Amino acid sequence: RYIACGLPVLAIARKGSELADIITKNHIGVVCDYGDIKCLRKFLLNTLIHKETLIRYRLNVLRYRELVDREIGAKLMFKVINKVLNN
Known about the structure:
Helix content is about 65%, strand content about 10%. The chain is mainly alpha-helical. The protein starts with a helix and ends with a helix.
């Protein structure tokens, strides 16, 4: 959903996972291991303090976004929200 919004991705995932590979190969964000506070801090500081880092991620995300079907993502999110509200 971050990609659909044009935002860099911060994922808590196992290195080498499919999600981690997509993020790192396309330079659309950062993958941190569970509990790795230093990684989270570094990502947040780099994107907040160094605006060129945020701009670079954003440009990569916008290029990658063309490959993401936002309609499918919206429909899936709608289903999840409905399920949560109906339970």
